[in-house]
Design goal:
Strand content: 25-35%
Largest sheet: 8 strands, mixed
Structural class: alpha/beta
Distance between the termini: 43 Å
Order of helices and strands: EEEEEHEEEEEEEEEHEHEHEHEHEHEE
CATH topology of the largest domain: Rossmann fold
Shape: globular
CATH architecture of the largest domain: 3-Layer(aba) Sandwich
Strand order of the largest sheet: 6-20-21-19-18-15-16-17
Radius of gyration: 22 Å
CATH superfamily of the largest domain: Vaccinia Virus protein VP39
Helix content: 10-25%
Number of domains: 3
């Protein structure tokens, strides 16, 4: 990144189409400017916040000609000078879903060579019936040097200590701002499916602990939260991964069960499987004569999977990297389900799946660019996209969840 002094501090721009990551594209003297907190077609005054040479990043600080889809911010703490929690809270929720659909369509064509839909005909589907607010059941807070909990500003270490984020149900963070916390600690808060609140403090790391896993302390509730999908319950560490949207795990499980097309006696792989939510529906489909292998690097998630799926003796839980686990698996699976982190599965893992001859893959991605890249990698191995859906699993934000089923 070059010296920010090269760029003007402020500009007035008319912004164009949405870009991946929550910005819109504008131009100034032939240079691309990615503008956050703006909507397509708006004329805005922006503050340049980063100079990358060929392009700049900027925040809209004044809207001169607003879009008809602009609304008063739904989140009271978000914005250019606020928290980074709800970076699309200034747009009507249905407009945000259209923007997300357009971004995914654009990335799929650019990075995956795949035409899903025309950008002006693409949209993300809502998740559940909770709406744009109050949908989140897990959140992590950082703490200031004076021990106050808060949310980060966008891509910043600075914290906003007003905890009134619109993603959170009423009362989820009650009382946490009233006490002092160790500077550098993190607070993990979960509302589980039994209505219990759990608060776990991790860190701060000190001295000899700097290279170890941060120590944890249960402040309220327990270290594990009860999560339910269908008739099955999981006890998942508050510090481990679980879908943040209260309806997401149930929705994705139903979709995986439908798209897997498994029969009794078949074999399925659940890769980046977390607590084994998808392994459960896969195991129900293949029955006792089949086999399911679920793989994740998290020990806490693997413990939750073993406990929740203990009655299914045909499920194997492996705590290891997906790459190493795939290299060791014999025979091949009839279907593989992948739910990788934001960076996606990548070439090495997809090469291994293709080399193993897996005929059917269900791929889930929470970042549009890495998802589109992965779709392109599958297509390079001869897979075709049978179906693809995009979900607004993170309302009020630019984040999105994509699910595709591919076969060959």
């Amino acid at each position: 990144m070059t010296d920010l002094a090269v760029a003007p501090s402020e500009l007035t721009l008319t912004v164009g189409p949405p870009a991946n990551g929550g910005s819109c594209v504008a131009r100034h003297d032939g240079r691309v400017v990615f503008v956050r907190y703006a909507l397509p077609g708006e004329r805005v005054r922006v503050r340049v916040v980063a100079d990358h040479g060929k392009y700049w990043h900027a925040d809209a600080v004044e809207v001169i000609d607003p879009s008809p889809e602009r609304v008063e911010s739904i989140c009271p703490i978000a914005g250019a000078d606020g928290a980074g929690c709800c970076d699309m809270a200034f747009a009507a929720p249905d407009a945000v879903r259209r923007i997300k659909g357009a971004v995914v369509a654009n990335q799929l064509m650019r990075l995956g060579g795949y035409l899903w839909r025309a950008e002006d005909d693409a949209t993300a589907d809502p998740v559940g019936d909770v709406g744009a607010t109050g949908w989140r059941t897990r959140v992590r807070l950082a703490t200031t040097a004076t021990g106050r909990p808060g949310f980060h500003r966008f891509h910043s270490a600075e914290l906003i200590t007003d905890l009134n984020c619109a993603q959170l149900p009423d009362g989820m963070l009650d009382g946490l701002a009233d006490r002092s916390w160790p500077p550098g600690a993190q607070l993990h808060v979960a509302l589980d499916d039994d209505g219990m609140r759990h608060v776990v403090q991790s860190g701060p790391r000190t001295g000899r602990q700097s290279r170890r896993k941060a120590p944890t302390q249960v402040i309220e509730g327990g270290y594990e939260a009860v999560q339910r999908v269908g008739s099955r319950a999981w006890r998942v560490p508050v510090t481990a991964f679980w879908q943040s949207h209260r309806d997401a795990a149930r929705l994705y499980s139903k979709l995986v069960a439908e798209w897997a097309q498994l029969n009794a006696g078949m074999t399925a792989w659940d890769l980046y499987g977390g607590a084994g939510v998808f392994a459960a529906v896969l195991a129900e489909a293949v029955g006792e004569t089949g086999k399911v292998v679920t793989v994740d690097t998290s020990r806490g998630s693997s413990r939750a999977a073993r406990a929740a799926l203990g009655d299914m003796g045909w499920v194997s839980v492996i705590t290891d990297s997906v790459r190493r686990a795939l290299a060791a698996q014999r025979p091949r699976a009839d279907v593989a389900v992948l739910d990788p982190p934001r960076t996606g599965a990548g070439r090495e893992v997809i090469d291994l799946l293709a080399a193993a001859g897996v005929p059917r893959v269900i791929h889930i991605g929470c970042e549009a660019a890495s998802f589109a890249r992965d779709v392109g990698l599958y297509r390079g191995h001869g897979y075709t996209v049978e179906e693809l859906r995009v979900f607004d699993s993170f309302p009020l934000t630019h984040h999105v969840e994509c699910v595709a089923v591919l076969s060959r």
